[in-house]
Amino acid sequence: MGMTIGEKIIARAAKVDEVKPGDIHTIEVDRLMSNDGTTHLTIDMYHNQLKNPRIADKDKLVFIIDHNIPAENPKTAEAHKKMRNFAKEHDITFYEGKGICHQIMVEDFVCPGEFIMGADSHTCTYGALGAFGTGIGCTDFLYAMVTGQSWVLVPETIRFNLTGKLREGVYPRDLILSIIGMVGASGCNYKIMEFAGEGAHNLSINDRLVLCNLAVEAGAKTGIVEPDDKVVEYVESRGRKAEHLFVSDPDAKFEKVYDINLDEIEPVVARPHLIDDVVPVKEVEASEVKIDEAFLGSCNNGRIDELRVAANILKGKKVNEHVRFLITPASNAVYIQALQEGLIDIFMEAGAMVMNSNCSVCWGSCQGVIGKDEVLISTGTRNFKGRAGDPDSYVYLGSAATVTASAIAGKIVENK
Q1: Whose CB among 160, 193, 307, 370 lies 3.0–4.6 Å from 389's, allowing a Cys bridge?
Q2: Are residues 412 and 291 in contact, defined by beta-carbon separation less than 8 angstroms?
Q3: Does the pLDDT at position 1 exceed 90?
């Protein structure tokens, strides 16, 4: 029987010829990533709960401080110190203040065909490069760190056949939110979301990162875009090898198949407090929803593509006097490129606040926290109650274009 992309990656990691949904396999993990959200807990377990603590392969480990950076209180500072010291003691690759963990992993580490586990739910981002990235808790991370192995229950695969191209003014963010609105927040629970077809190959690497990053918001184990020459070019341009470009076999079995014409996608937003409550922007615009804050950034939408979109809209205009507009590049590399292209000048002249590269408003605990009854329009990853501050605040999710146009208008509008 033929296998899907995800099944082939699992088979490679398990060192077997074939896997099928429902099988349980022990796998060799290609790489492990942990950020400051839970690494301190993993370190405590390492020291206090293991009889013979050891690290299987330090070269597979990457520690990244990105969620609360710089530290906003003594408790966070202590967690960072613990992480810093442990990484130094064990010679673990360590990043601090260099950007969001998933952006750094894509820039510096991920290769197609790899099985990567990260102590963060949006590790599924790595599927944009044809890898199997999936989030785990700190207990599973500890086990993988000391053994080099983990286990996986092979998921079913749901295939999304994409055709056509996104129209001008429509973005991959609109596409993935539309898909989540269609299948529901639990529509792909513990499934692999496979994106393939002509439409998928028309998407840039950045576009694919946007798709795979939010796969977990449909409940998916991971999201994977069928790799092609664009993946090879991206990976090799960064000094890495693209050795395992897996594609699904013609006779591979899918649980479901969705056919989606990209030409039909329109600008959308997800309304509070559910990511699958997705409607056209024009519908919300008609309701005159005033905003207090706008956010452009996150592991989903903080790359140079989105910053260029925002700068093009903002140039020569001003942020509404009643709106706080926070912009956070996804990594220092993105920040530097934005500086070189003059984008930061445009943001500052328009009245936006440009932050250091970190999770920022999306994480909702260190920058741009919103108060009771305040409304945020965001390119972040989630919009459940209290995600960005007070439980009685409201978070709408949209594209960089929708967020920027709304920051100028002072209310949620479609960019026209």
Answers
A1: 370
A2: yes
A3: no
Q: Which of 225, 35, 11, 24 is nearest to 118 (CA)?
A: 35
Contact call for residues 173 and 301 (beta carbons, < 8 A): yes
pTM beyond cutoff 0.90: yes
Residue 104, token pair as written in the block? 């750094």
355: which DSSP letter? P
pLDDT digits (tens, 9 = 90+) for 122-179: 999 999 999 999 999 999 999 999 999 999 999 999 999 999 999 999 999 999 999 9
Angle of helix 39-48 relative to helix 74-89, nearest 10 degrees, comes to 60
Identify the sign of the CA torsion 255, 224, 63, 185. Answer: negative
Query: What is the predicted pLDDT for the residue at 180?
Result: 98
Axis crossing angle, helix 332-340 with helix 343-350, rounded to the nearest 10 = 80
3-state SS of the chain: helix, strand, coil percent to 5? 40, 20, 40
User: What is the enclosing helix (H) or strand (E) of 160?
Assistant: strand 156-163
Q: How far apart are the first and last CA of the chain?
A: 49
Average of pLDDT values for 65-77?
A: 94
Residue type at 36 in one-letter notation? D
Residues 6+ apart with CB under 8 A from 333: 99, 107
Give the pair of three-digit tokens for residue 51: 């009889």
Q: What are phi and psi of 199, to 5 degrees?
A: -65, -35
What is the distance between the alpha carbons of residues 178 and 172, in angstroms, rounded to a whole number?
10
Torsion over CA: 101, 136, 186, 231 (sign): positive
Q: What does 226-265 look like in DSSP terms, one character per residue?
A: PP-HHHHHHHHHTT----------TTB--SEEEEEEGGG-
Q: What would the pLDDT profile of 243-273 be if each residue is shown by its tens digit? A: 999 999 999 999 999 999 999 999 999 999 9
For residue 298, CA distances in Å to 134, 164, 310 come to: 18, 27, 14
CB-based burial label for 205 (10 Å; 0-12, 13-18, 19+)? middle
Query: Whose structure tokens read 């991959």?
Result: 172
